Amino acid sequence: MTRLFNDPDDFGAEMTAGFAAASARWVRAHPGGVVRSTADAEPTVSLVVGGGSGHYPAFAGLVGPGLAHGAAMGNIFASPSTQQVHSVAAEADQGRGVLLSYGNYAGDVLNFDAAQERLRADGVDCRTVVVTDDVSSATADRRADRRGIAGDLTVFKVAGAACAAGYDLDGVERVARLTNDRTRSLGVAFDGCTLPGADEPLFRVPENRMAVGLGIHGEPGIDETDVPTAAALAELLVSTLLAEIPDGAGTRVVPILNGLGSVKYEELFVVYGTVHRLLAETGLEIVDPEVGEFCTSFDMAGASLTLLWPDDELERLWTAPCDTPAFRRGRVDGQRTRSAATGTAPATAAAVIGDATPRSRACGARIAAALADVAGELDAHAEEFGRLDRVAGDGDHGIGMQRGGRAARDAAADAAGRGAGAGTVLRRAADAWGDRAGGTSGAIWAAALDALGGALGDDTAPDTRAVADAVRAAEQAVTKAGGATVGDKTMVDAIVPFVRTLDERTVAGDTLADAWDTAARAATDAAEGTRELRAGLGRARSHGDRSIGTPDPGAVSFALVVRTVGQRLREEPTC
Amino acid sequence: MTRLFNDPDDFGAEMTAGFAAASARWVRAHPGGVVRSTADAEPTVSLVVGGGSGHYPAFAGLVGPGLAHGAAMGNIFASPSTQQVHSVAAEADQGRGVLLSYGNYAGDVLNFDAAQERLRADGVDCRTVVVTDDVSSATADRRADRRGIAGDLTVFKVAGAACAAGYDLDGVERVARLTNDRTRSLGVAFDGCTLPGADEPLFRVPENRMAVGLGIHGEPGIDETDVPTAAALAELLVSTLLAEIPDGAGTRVVPILNGLGSVKYEELFVVYGTVHRLLAETGLEIVDPEVGEFCTSFDMAGASLTLLWPDDELERLWTAPCDTPAFRRGRVDGQRTRSAATGTAPATAAAVIGDATPRSRACGARIAAALADVAGELDAHAEEFGRLDRVAGDGDHGIGMQRGGRAARDAAADAAGRGAGAGTVLRRAADAWGDRAGGTSGAIWAAALDALGGALGDDTAPDTRAVADAVRAAEQAVTKAGGATVGDKTMVDAIVPFVRTLDERTVAGDTLADAWDTAARAATDAAEGTRELRAGLGRARSHGDRSIGTPDPGAVSFALVVRTVGQRLREEPTC
């Protein structure tokens, strides 16, 4: 929903004023909208675009060198008035004529047509190219009735580049019209937007459903489905557009994947990956794709795919430089294409497994088996750890431990299978854990396992004392890496009592399995104890009851890991 | 919420692959993230940035000429691993050293520091500048503990420009550190985001509340308030940042107003208008502001303001050209600043009021009074018309009629007050209505009032027949402008019976007041009749019961206008 406004009645005017203040490098306010604040060296044909507000960067964000000369800015989702269009176009005119271009909506057609009449009455040569790219809004035999959506961008960009290249008005009109003929779009929506000051959304899409072909103001769509996967959406968009390849289209295509407001960049990139592959698989060559927000509807949840099939001339104009508040194609001088792998990165060292004694190898195999148990338990508890972590963190502790545990399991199995000793198995597991898990816990577990492996080595089967010493080395690595101490409400709160207890019980003569069990219980108790310490933190941070007195997820997951290892030690007490 | 993904586990990898495919002009994928696909003519110091994914354009969107050389891309909201950072940095290195820069989060610090150690072990000169711009995350005396948010952009941009300018590693590190020292940010949030595949949001902000200083992963804020107006938010952001002006700051400042995902451009521009004014009022000169999305958290609802106080060197570097997927400062050759009003627009004609007969002037005053009544009724019914229009339109009919009616009232009062005749009062009202209302209804009402005014003229007090003839002229103007006919479910369905009835009753000898009354009833009935016609349309369009059988808002508002005029005619039957 739209939250930030003053008097909703003033929204359009305040938005225009703020936009002009933020964008003085490119535009200045003029009654009815904005015009460029810069001029070309020689007069050119002027491109004037426009429409209702609420679709930024369309339309005012596209005013600047190499693109439009002015934008008429209507109220929210309402076409600009005849007077607004006339005012902006008359100011933008440089004496070589004006091309008006905008999306095909009744109000816009009315007002732009009337403005065109007034401009002609003023003696200005004026033409119009209406954008009609939305394939869902009318059948192919009624293309002129279709709405204009994100395909605006291709028409405006090509026309603006033609103006900059010195084309006369006939020429600018010709390439703009050809670009519209060669452009097709299809959009989908998952939810509507709430306009400034409105009590309810302009329209709704039922939860977990997707409206296919819904217009950017909520106009009727052509279908409704469940929300698909990203890949299935890409297939729908590509197959629908490829079912209507324009006359004269070649084998090169410009894709524009547009977000309507709250479908964000990362999601668009996931969808684009499949779009790119599908287009390439049909033999199309992809030219300068664009993925981002080009025609929005406030925070409407939706996306659209536009395809332009350019000829050589349109491609040259599409890729020409431009510089506007929201769309820039720059060029920083002196750049050349860089081939892969030209850095100073050393080639990856081959994963050679060093020598190990037979007993250390046997121990390595057992460690690999224990890490498999650990991975299984981390899988089973990932959801719970995520929940704990959401109280005061970003909720990724579960997935991080899961990724790390699985990677460690696989790396350890690989190393053990190739005859690695205990130390190497642990160090390989450490590296994999850190690399796959990322984050804080990944780095700390990597440090712990690496230190453990370094202390155990590949030469001997470690006895009870050697294990206790190695565990102490791991503890030191953790506190060095993380910088936390007991009472900081981190996993250190569980590690310290674990190591101390293990030390005490092995010195007292317990077997490794017994000592480990006792130590794991101490870790579990300590992890539970972080609950108390975190109560204040939870209250400061969150807004619900669930925040109060949850234990630290890192301490809890540490206790789970050592309990799991203890279970295996009890079942197979010797190497 | 995040809707578009395949297997959530693969989200990070698929996002990276799609991003690289979409952005091959600037980057190529390399294990751990992306590096540039282009090279400078001469080797430079390399800038490597990074962090968790989910913040696009941070961090991968900032790789390209004039900015970063590589980005390490962690999983969603999780720092990249040591291996990832090392892999990207080693590949980006050109033999002149590497600057690592990223926001201050524990996991990032751990992994980037470990990667730095490995790079140094490889013989690469490597330095680190951690970004700490978020004033809400620690007090001023503990600046090094603060988190990094959208201030990343200033540090990265300045450092990247210094690399491109040939600075050595000491120099790049120096300007990056100075930029961080001179950068302050404060963010607010209205709602959290739901990560791909998650069942519930990572965090929530209570409805109609605003969390002040909430971190980009939901870290604790410093306050919670009701959602303020756009202007009050601007005041909060500016006053908080100006309370901590950095040492050595001058009088020039770069503002960056950043949207976190679903607070959109138009809202940001409204806020920015006040930010700009407040900064200027304190005597600060504003340098190249940026308003847009630079550091997001999926579709989190929030915004942040960053201020950089540059010195001459930093300003030169901040404004230097760059070209990356998401941040470009280009320059199209040959542009010069254009002063205001250089177009061919004729100077606005002075609003001279022409001659009129005394009786036409009296009639003009009565028309102005009737238009005041109409404006009052349109105000009272704006909400209802908006509701009707949301069924099959964009919901702006109410506000459009309200704006138009008010503008017509004011213009008519002004013209009548200056002695205009009936025709001029109506034509001035027409022009104002069209200009202020915009949209389809604005254009149609402007055409109708203009035709009415043209037919009545300024010479005579129109008699009953003259009024009926003028109304018929207005009807023709409406059908010409709108192109609709009876049965199209538009206001034409109400106008046509109104005009026909008025004609019949005046021919039959009724007084104007009586004939108008009867005609207005016919219009009201016809407007109600559009309810039936629209049932099918409603069903096709919408998802709820409210869609079925609502009348056309244009027909309903037309009937209201003529009823209102009829009421005045009855009270004052003669001019």
Automatic annotation (TrEMBL), chains A, B:
Query: Which of UniProt's keywords are assigned here?
Result: ATP-binding, Kinase, Nucleotide-binding, Transferase
Q: Where is the signal peptide?
A: none
The answer to whether keyword Transferase applies is: yes
Q: Name one GO cellular component term.
A: cytosol
Q: Which residues form the DhaL domain?
A: 365-567
Q: Domain DhaK spans what residues?
A: 7-327
Xref: InterPro entries:
DhaK_dom, DhaL_dom, DhaL_dom_sf, Dihydroxyacetone_Kinase
Q: Which domain of life is it from?
A: Bacteria
Return the Pfam families for the record: Dak1 (PF02733), Dak2 (PF02734)
Q: What is its EC number?
A: 2.7.-.-
Q: Does the keyword Hydrolase belong to this entry? A: no
Q: Which GO terms describe its molecular function?
A: ATP binding; glycerone kinase activity
- PROSITE patterns under this entry? DHAK, DHAL
According to the UniProt entry, the coiled-coil residues are none
Q: Write out the GO biological process terms.
A: glycerol catabolic process
User: Which PANTHER family does the record match to this protein?
Assistant: TRIOKINASE/FMN CYCLASE, TRIOKINASE_FMN CYCLASE
Identification of the protein by name: PTS-dependent dihydroxyacetone kinase, dihydroxyacetone-binding subunit DhaK
According to its UniProt entry, this protein's organism is Pseudonocardia autotrophica
The gene name on file is dhaK_1
